[in-house]
Design a protein that fits this description.
Layout: E1 21-29, E2 34-38, E3 41-52, E4 55-62, H1 65-68, E5 74-85, E6 88-92, E7 98-101
Parallel strand pairs: 4-6
Antiparallel strand pairs: 1-3, 1-5, 2-3, 3-4, 5-6, 5-7
Length: 102
């Protein structure tokens, strides 16, 4: 499949270890954040579930990002990346990506 730069992907098209991921989806679940120890110290993380018309995935929200979004929000992730964790695709914003509420 050939994607044009800047074109939104569907969740069903996501695979492990993808970069430059652009996705729009609705947050359908946000469990209580948990505190994890990273190499930078303690930080909060929330494994939110997002969906579009093709499927669902996990969106990792870190620190202050958690307080910006709620169930029912539609978000746009730009220049994110994916990884597989426990046989499930996770979308991450990272340092070079961005996320915003639509």
């Amino acid at each position: 499949m050939l994607l044009i730069w800047g074109e939104k992907m569907k969740i069903s098209e996501l695979k492990d270890s993808m970069n430059n991921v652009d996705v729009s989806a609705e947050i359908v679940e946000m469990p209580e954040p948990r505190t994890v120890l990273t190499k930078f110290g303690n930080n909060r993380v929330c494994s939110a579930k997002i969906k579009d018309d093709s499927g669902t995935a996990t969106l990792s929200l870190w620190g202050k990002q958690i307080d910006l979004f709620a169930v029912g929000d539609t978000v746009e992730i730009t220049n994110g990346y994916t990884k597989s964790f426990r046989d499930e695709i996770q979308i991450n914003v990272g340092k070079t990506g961005s996320i915003r509420k639509l």
